[in-house]
Amino acid sequence: MGGETIKAGFRGAVGAFSLDAAFEIPARGVTALYGPSGCGKTTVLRCIAGLNRLHPGFCAIDGDIWQDESSFLPTHRRPIGYVFQEASLFPHLSVRRNLLYGARAPKRGGEPDAIRFDEVVELLGLAPLLDRAPRNLSGGERQRVAIGRALLSQPRLMLMDEPLAALDRQAKDEILPFLERLHEGLSLPVIYVAHDMDEIERLADHLVLMEMGRVMASGPLAALQSDPDLPLSKTRSAAVSLDAIVESFDADYGVASLAVAGGRFFVPTSRVTIGALRRIRVLASDVSLAVEAGPRSTILNVLPARILTVAPSGEREMTAVLGLGFEGDGAQLLARVTRRSWDLLGLQAGMSVHAQVKAVAFAPGRTGGVRR
Amino acid sequence: MAEIDSAMSGLAPDTWTSGLPPDTWTAIRLTIELATLTTIVLVIIGTPIAWWLARSRAWWKEPVATVIALPLVLPPTVLGFYLLLALGPDGPGGMIARLWNERTLAFTFEGLVIGSVVYSTPFVVQPIRNAFEAMGDRPLEVAATLRASPWRAFWTVAVPLARPGFLTGAVLGFAHTVGEFGIVLMIGGSIPGKTKVLSVAVYDYVETMQWREANILAAGMAIFAFIVILAMTLIEKRVARAGL
């Protein structure tokens, strides 16, 4: 599936505004459709599934055309798995029969299913629920069954429409680890509609930003997070998510060393697997800048970097995009500093600086990490 | 007065134990046959109509629904009159009857089935339509995303979810057919073994002053109606509790 892509584009009237959204994303990993509510994310997802039909529209995955000017594949002939905001289990079927509803697809030439029943039950922790009726499940349990049911229909593309939005905090925390395991365990592309940045930072590899029915930007998550022209870098909780490799772990101090392009972070943690890929999150407001490496300090992470661009954030603050490494060609971080400090130090784009990172957080649960 | 007295004496409990005339048993059997057949036909033709009314976006669907609902408010004599014309020698019914060398469908059991089907249609279609509408689009969308063809989705999702509607529709259709009188009189007459159903039998007994028989049949039908309505209420309550 290497270089394959998913291409989609739809135009038409949807409710009060017109949708005119087109994007091309890699057919692997998790792509988040992100934007304010009512911006057309769900409509785009429904169009990809064939549940809505906009004309003109185009949709193709790995070169297989599902919709173009002359053709439209009905939903039941598209190899998708769809998870709705509400679990929408069939109330007249047990959990087991819900899971197996879409699993009846005839097997060609005895080829075994890519996603097996036992695997899904194990992955989503469904074993104790199998013989129960949907009405006796909690919201979180229902959504897990809905995800399993979609997986067992052997999709080539998972579509998830804010699967956590209807759940309370506790149920969300219960499901997120499952979604993360799903992401790691299966090489199945996922398009995930979300309006909660937390979920996106934990799950997404790729981001499609939408507003008023249009696509504002599309690209790798970290690239869009650190793009000074996009609204993400302007919010109070602006942050960058980076995938880092665990290089070593100092059990004495309980500090792990994680490598990203152009730099290395030290992160206090209880236990990590050497060589594992972990997602870390650095808030713009946790990064301050120094012109010199300066005196020794208690800050664990001081990394050489170069200021790439800078933009004012309101009256009093500046947000700078940093490239890690002396040349600034490594991973990018955001730094939020006061305008006063900025001017006092005489900072400007192109300068070499030292980024002092006060806190680096693991995206919880991600990739072979510490699990409850 | 003497006649009334002798009629009233028929109400004394000791006389209830003696059997009903064979004529009455024929009417009971005929009524059950008619109601069963009508219900089966109505569920078969009513389901696609209810499905179409629930899912179509055609502008003329409400006029169609109104035509189907007409028997609810039309006097049975009006409906019976039109049915008589339609089933008679000059109507389409007569043309069909000629296939087996009869002159008319009026005053036959077959004609009675057709009339009952027309008359009871709203009682079967309405609950099924409501059930299809109440489930919304979502279950069918889910089925489609799970590779179910519209046909499979209909049978495995829509029909099971609309089960309470089917139950209500079938019970109402059956009970309403048992209870109809005006139309039967207009298009069926009162031919024993052919068109003389219970409601007509009660009328005939009263006409001929057979109060004991009339009383037994009337009480039986009142109890039947009571049981039907109670059973339906209980079913609906149970279904509501089950969260279907």
Task: Describe the SSE topology.
The complex is a heterodimer of chains A (372) and B (244).
Chain A: E1 5-14, E2 17-26, E3 30-34, H1 41-49, E4 57-61, E5 64-67, E6 80-83, H2 95-100, H3 117-123, H4 139-151, E7 157-161, H5 169-185, E8 190-194, H6 197-203, E9 206-211, E10 214-220, H7 221-225, E11 239-250, E12 255-260, E13 263-268, E14 277-283, E15 287-290, E16 301-313, E17 317-324, E18 332-338, H8 339-345, E19 352-357, E20 361-362
Helix pairs in contact in A: 4-5
Chain B: H1 2-9, H2 13-16, H3 22-55, H4 61-69, H5 76-87, H6 92-97, H7 109-135, H8 138-145, H9 150-161, H10 163-179, H11 182-187, H12 198-207, H13 211-242
Q: In words, what does this structure look like?
A:
The complex is a heterodimer of chains A (372) and B (244). In chain A, 19% of the residues lie in helices and 35% in strands. Chain A has eight helices and 20 strands. A six-stranded mixed sheet of chain A has the order 6-7-8-3-9-10, with helices on both faces. Chain A has a five-stranded antiparallel sheet with strand order 13-12-11-14-20. The longest helix of chain A has 17 residues, at 169-185. With 244 residues, chain B is mainly α. Helices cover 76% and strands 0% of the residues of chain B. Chain B starts with a helix and ends with a helix. Chain B is globular. In chain B, α3 (22-55) packs parallel to α7 (109-135), α7 (109-135) packs antiparallel against α10 (163-179) and α12 runs antiparallel to α13. Classes of the chains: A alpha+beta (372), B mainly alpha (244). Chain A binds chain B through residues 49-51, 74-77, 79-82, 84, 86, 88, 90-92, 101-102, 104-105, 135, 149-150, 153, 159, and chain B through 138-139, 141-150, 153, 156-157, 160-161, 163, 242-244.
